[in-house]
């Protein structure tokens, strides 16, 4: 690192808030529901998101928009976190993260991203829609779908998610709409998805002088306690 530069770190805090209606924003943060993919042409499927312990498809937990100012190839960057809903698998570390990134000039978005004001994520004529590249999305979880309901053309990534949707209301609605659902509504399928929240991110406030002094005193107290504990241990060992 350059001697004239000091690497600075900052802590940001995320808070879950109720999402706005029809909130489909790729350049922000969300928890639960379905992911909105930054790179619409290349979307992971079941084989890419399979739990290494139970073999089930992992569940989307959250996405963060985290562009990198120091890397021109990461002018846009999103992080996607998936976890296994099985507690035993989760305790073994069944978590995975996907990173998608793009330079400012790319095939999907205009260089002036502020001009993207309409939500056309599910419009096949739009360059940043997965449907534009022939990708189908699971109506339950939003990852790449490879099969569909024979009666109403609703898409699913797996048999498990088709069964889950059937139990969650698709049984009653099947056949009423044959347009082929791509999961364009952030409805939640219990047991498969986490509830949908928007994540608002704020920088952590700078500590006050009183808080800095209090933290310093606490560190000194713990160091003194640790030192006394070590001296006592040495004394006991020498007399034994």
UniProtKB/TrEMBL annotation:
Residue stretches of biased makeup (Polar residues): 224-240
Chain intervals for the UniProt region annotation (Disordered): 204-240
Keyword Amino-acid biosynthesis: no
MYND-type domain boundaries: 138-174
Annotated organism of origin: Blastocystis hominis
Record's compositionally biased regions (Basic and acidic residues): 206-222
Signal peptide span: none
Pfam families assigned: zf-MYND
GO molecular function, one term: zinc ion binding
Stated name of the protein: MYND-type domain-containing protein
Domain of life where this protein originates: Eukaryota
Lineage per the UniProt record: Eukaryota, Sar, Stramenopiles, Bigyra, Opalozoa
Gene3D superfamilies named among the record's database cross-references: 6.10.140.2220
Keywords of this entry: Metal-binding, Zinc, Zinc-finger
Transmembrane segments: none
Coiled coil location: none
């Amino acid at each position: 690192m350059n001697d004239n530069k000091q690497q600075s770190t900052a802590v940001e805090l995320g808070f879950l808030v109720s999402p706005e209606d029809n909130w489909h924003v790729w350049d922000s943060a969300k928890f639960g529901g379905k992911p909105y993919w930054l790179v619409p042409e290349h979307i992971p499927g079941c084989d890419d998101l399979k739990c290494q312990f139970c073999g089930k498809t992992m569940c989307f937990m959250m996405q963060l928009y985290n562009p990198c100012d120091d890397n021109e190839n990461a002018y846009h960057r999103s992080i996607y976190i998936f976890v296994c809903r099985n507690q035993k698998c989760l305790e073994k570390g069944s978590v995975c993260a996907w990173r998608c990134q793009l330079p400012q000039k790319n095939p999907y978005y205009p260089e002036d991203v502020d001009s993207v004001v309409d939500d056309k994520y599910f419009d096949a004529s739009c360059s940043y829609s997965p449907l534009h590249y022939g990708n189908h999305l699971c109506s339950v979880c939003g990852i790449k779908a490879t099969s569909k309901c024979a009666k109403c053309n609703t898409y699913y990534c797996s048999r498990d998610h088709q069964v889950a949707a059937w139990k969650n209301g698709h049984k009653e609605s099947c056949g009423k709409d044959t347009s082929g659902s791509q999961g364009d509504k952030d409805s939640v399928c219990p047991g498969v998805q986490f509830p949908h929240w928007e994540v608002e991110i704020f920088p952590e406030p700078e500590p006050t002088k009183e808080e800095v002094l209090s933290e310093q005193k606490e560190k000194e107290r713990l160091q003194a306690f640790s030192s006394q504990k070590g001296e006592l241990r040495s004394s006991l060992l020498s007399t034994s």
